[in-house]
Amino acid sequence: MAFFENQSISSFSRKFKEKTQMTPVQYMNLKKIEKVKEYLDKENYTLREIAELTGFSNENYMIRVFK
Hints:
By secondary structure, the chain is an all-alpha fold. It is built from four helices and no strands.
């Protein structure tokens, strides 16, 4: 946690992008989409339920990010 202390959001975002080649939001969405794929492969959930389970605000936004 010491790494995050006294670091601005913009500084963190810049360093994160240097290391991962993506923004923190892009990274989080990538991880969420990996979970969405798991739910779609093995369970019978509605898109609304999958959106809730994976942290998306709604199924429309999830679908947009998934594309």
